[in-house]
């Protein structure tokens, strides 16, 4: 049973969410932060949670999920280079470089929020799961708990059907609602089309070049041989009807991650976003079971 989340007292000072464009390693990156609300019990706040988006999606796509998460948890969303409000890189960046940018971004947030981001929890959706896995490999001492949602191990994974892959090679589903409806019959099996449209109506238009840069990062990266070296507690959340990331990938990841837990749900690729009230508590319960104690507390 999911525990009731304590809410701030009516007279408690609740910090306002904010959005900034920061210069990180010479690149402008847009970030949105929902600061942690005070806990009425006086308990220390959980670790900050970084949400990393799927391919092509600006940070607005993750807003419904962020809104349902425990208000005591600081939630960070950002646009990777070329997406949303972030500056496009002149050359494609590999996963390792994107992860370094994320680490530098977190360092800058210390001054904006007044709290440490030395250790964070991370949730990666689809393509974003690659950055989360790479972050855990590059920065194990900065990694708290992980949630890998509708994601795989990059180029070395069980692929989707050819028709689904072809639909994923273009950003048209973001920019053309009629195409999205058509493509959704293959990509978003198990999801309510109206719920998918409502989500994508939030997202900023996607430039083809930026999308190609993200495809480059994915197709030149894999975590499969090194999953056993990710020591962080990891939730692998996958939809039984997901045609983009066949469910066998979740089982492979769960078997190779030393502290991996697999949770399967009845939906498809975007289940966590179309049904955050149902699946958000699954993520919350996992993160709460692995709350920091002592040395890694922010």
Describe this structure in words.
Helices cover 35% and strands 16% of the residues. The model has no long low-confidence stretch (mean pLDDT 93). It is globular, with a radius of gyration of 18 Å. α2 crosses α3. The protein is an alpha/beta fold.
| Structure summary, number of beta strands | 8
Would you list the SSEs in sequence order as H and E?
EEEHEHEHEHHHHHEHEHH
| Helix content bin | 25-40%
> Class by helix and strand content?
alpha/beta
- Whole-number average pLDDT? 93
CA-atom Rg in angstroms: 18 Å
Query: How many helices in DSSP terms?
Result: 11
What general outline do the C-alpha atoms trace? globular
Strand content: 15-25%
Distance between the termini: 28 Å
In spatial order, strands of the major sheet run 1-2-4-3-5-6-7-8
Biggest sheet layout: 8 strands, mixed
Which consecutive residue ranges, at least 5 long each, have pLDDT under 50?
none
Structure described in brief:
Helix content is 35%, strand content 16%.
List keywords for this structure.
298 residues; alpha/beta; 8-stranded mixed sheet; 11 helices
Give the topology:
Blueprint: E1 18-24, E2 27-34, E3 49-52, H1 63-68, E4 75-78, H2 95-113, E5 120-125, H3 128-138, E6 143-149, H4 162-168, H5 172-175, H6 177-187, H7 193-200, H8 208-219, E7 234-239, H9 248-256, E8 260-265, H10 271-274, H11 276-289
Helix pairs in contact: 2-3
């Amino acid at each position: 049973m999911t525990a009731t989340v304590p809410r701030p007292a009516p007279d408690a000072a609740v910090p306002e969410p904010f959005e900034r464009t920061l210069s990180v390693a010479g690149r402008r990156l847009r970030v949105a932060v929902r600061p942690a609300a005070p806990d009425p019990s006086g308990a220390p706040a959980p670790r900050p949670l970084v949400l990393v988006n799927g391919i092509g999606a600006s940070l607005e796509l993750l807003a419904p999920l962020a809104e349902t998460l425990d208000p005591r948890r600081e939630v960070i969303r950002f646009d990777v280079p070329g997406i949303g409000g972030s500056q496009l890189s002149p050359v494609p960046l590999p996963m390792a470089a994107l992860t370094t940018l994320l680490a530098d971004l977190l360092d800058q947030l210390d001054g904006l929020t007044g709290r440490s981001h030395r250790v964070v929890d991370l949730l990666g959706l689809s393509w974003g799961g690659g950055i989360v896995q790479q972050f855990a490999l590059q920065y194990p001492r900065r990694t708290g708990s992980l949630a890998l949602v509708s994601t795989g191990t990059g180029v070395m994974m069980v692929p989707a059907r050819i028709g689904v892959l072809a639909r994923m090679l273009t950003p048209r589903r973001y920019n053309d609602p009629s195409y999205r409806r058509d493509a959704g019959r293959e990509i978003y099996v198990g999801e309510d089309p109206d719920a998918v449209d409502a989500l994508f109506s939030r997202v900023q238009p996607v430039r083809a070049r930026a999308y190609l840069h993200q495809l480059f990062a994915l197709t030149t990266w894999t975590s499969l041989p090194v999953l056993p070296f990710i020591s962080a507690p990891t939730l692998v959340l996958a939809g039984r009807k997901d045609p983009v990331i066949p469910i066998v990938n979740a089982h492979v990841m769960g078997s190779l991650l030393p502290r991996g837990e697999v949770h399967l749900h009845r939906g498809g690729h975007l289940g966590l976003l179309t049904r955050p009230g149902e699946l958000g508590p699954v993520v919350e319960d996992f993160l709460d079971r692995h709350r920091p104690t002592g040395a890694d507390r922010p």
